């Protein structure tokens, strides 16, 4: 059984960033990947998807985007090529096509069992990603026969859908993107809207992500917020990384003919979808939060002396809410496909350690788990608001590798 100081599980951006940081600290390690580098980016996304962040923001330790379109948004093949290029540039010790089947405690370390043998290590980093399994509500089982019920992980493009109406459940980044694309294919779309985060693509002439980055909003730490549990469950921004840098919010979708309804509450035995009457409240709250964010940006811009260099402050029209948004929709006869854009969750069937909470998430404090030597990467707001972006992986890895180095020093002293 080979031994190594650290086993990293997952060769996406977080696993590779950790590999780079460990190399800089001369900590020997291996990166285990069930497929090839960037496997999830290569296999689990729909055809037209682009990053929500501009190319210049795809920053990793010792690596930057150096292409001709820094303000554009990478396609999925480009993301895959970027991450594989990074793995090559840092000579990451990746073991591809090596699926982890068990991680268990052994003495003062861990044994990691894979389809290609076992590894023993005093430290393990879980970097398998937070998007392993689509979150589908129990009500999905009540979708009538003859109506397709799929997740974004199964969706590739509109041509795979039957002709006829489509109900998209969920209005975060995925939901609004699919609603627009499918509607433009000629299929009537109804979008079920719950809690969401409204966001313009451009503000005062610059990408909104530039403002969030420059003003330090994305650098807010996990130990600086009042309710980290709530912060980690906030929906993704309503953003689309389109070449035209378009804003796709509920107003834009309604302008092209997408119908919006409230949060989906259930499906009756006769196949009728039920929607909440809180659509107005959800939209009003999103509008208020957007106004507060723009106010924060404007205040920072003034303090930074940028007011004369960028466009003047602006406020966006309130979200239009239909006066009589339907509370029920008979699926049969109106809908041929339901797409559950209701989020993703991590999955750890191989983690044979008492570290999961009641909902199946790894318990941690900024990536440091209760078990000595076991660390978590790849989680929403792991250590900073930007943790779920490629740009957040580097600083999270730097922090956790420093913690690990301290732990290994203590372990060596004890031994």
What would your notes on this structure say?
There is one protein chain. 26% of the residues lie in helices and 17% in strands. It is α/β, with parallel strands linked by helices and 415 residues long. It folds into 2 domains: 6-132 and 346-414, FAD/NAD(P)-binding domain (3-Layer(bba) Sandwich); 134-340, no CATH class. The strands form 6 sheets. It has a 5-stranded parallel β-sheet with strand order 3-2-1-7-20, covered by helices on one side. The chain has a 5-stranded parallel β-sheet with strand order 9-18-10-11-14. It has a 3-stranded antiparallel β-sheet with strand order 4-5-6, with no helix packed on it. Strand 12 (202-203) and strand 13 (206-207) form a beta hairpin. Helix 1 crosses helix 9 (393-414). The longest helix has 25 residues, at 279-303. The radius of gyration is 23 Å and the shape is globular.
Structure keywords:
alpha/beta, FAD/NAD(P)-binding domain, 9 helices
């Amino acid at each position: 059984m080979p031994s190594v100081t650290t086993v990293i599980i997952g060769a996406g951006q977080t696993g590779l960033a950790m590999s780079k940081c460990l190399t800089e600290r001369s900590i020997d390690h291996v990166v285990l990947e069930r497929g090839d580098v960037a496997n999830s980016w290569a296999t689990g996304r729909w055809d037209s998807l682009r990053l929500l962040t501009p190319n210049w923001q795809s920053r990793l330790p010792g690596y930057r985007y150096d292409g001709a379109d820094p303000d554009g948004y990478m396609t999925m093949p480009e993301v895959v090529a970027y991450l594989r290029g990074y793995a090559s540039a840092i000579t990451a010790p990746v073991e591809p096509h090596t699926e982890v089947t068990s991680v268990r405690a052994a003495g003062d370390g861990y044994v990691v069992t894979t389809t290609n043998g076992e590894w023993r290590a005093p430290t393990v980093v879980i970097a398998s990603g937070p998007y392993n399994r689509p979150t589908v509500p129990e009500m999905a089982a009540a979708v009538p026969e003859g109506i397709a019920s799929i997740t974004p992980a199964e969706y590739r493009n509109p041509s795979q859908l039957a002709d006829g109406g489509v109900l998209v459940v969920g209005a975060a980044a995925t939901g609004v993107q699919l609603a627009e694309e499918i509607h433009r294919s000629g299929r009537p779309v109804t979008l079920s809207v719950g809690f969401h985060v409204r966001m313009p693509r451009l503000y005062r002439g610059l990408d909104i992500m530039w403002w969030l980055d420059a003003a330090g909003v994305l650098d807010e730490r996990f130990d600086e917020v009042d309710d980290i549990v709530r912060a980690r469950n906030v929906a993704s921004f309503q953003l689309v990384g389109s070449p035209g840098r378009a804003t796709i919010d509920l107003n834009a979708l309604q302008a092209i003919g997408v119908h919006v309804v409230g949060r989906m509450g259930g499906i009756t035995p006769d196949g009728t979808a039920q929607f909440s009457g809180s659509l107005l409240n959800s939209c009003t709250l999103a509008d208020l939060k957007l106004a507060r964010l723009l106010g924060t940006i404007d205040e920072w811009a003034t303090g930074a002396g940028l007011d004369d260099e960028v466009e003047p402050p602006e406020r966006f029209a309130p979200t239009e809410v239909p006066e009589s948004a339907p509370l029920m929709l008979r699926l049969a006869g109106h809908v041929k496909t339901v797409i559950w854009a209701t989020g993703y969750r991590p999955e750890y069937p191989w983690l044979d350690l008492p570290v999961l909470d009641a909902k199946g998430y790894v318990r941690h404090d900024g990536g440091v788990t209760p078990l000595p030597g076991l660390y978590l990467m790849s989680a929403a707001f792991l250590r900073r608001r930007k943790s779920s972006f490629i740009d957040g992986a580097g600083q999270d890895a730097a922090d956790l590798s420093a913690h690990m180095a301290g732990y290994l020093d203590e372990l060596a002293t004890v031994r």
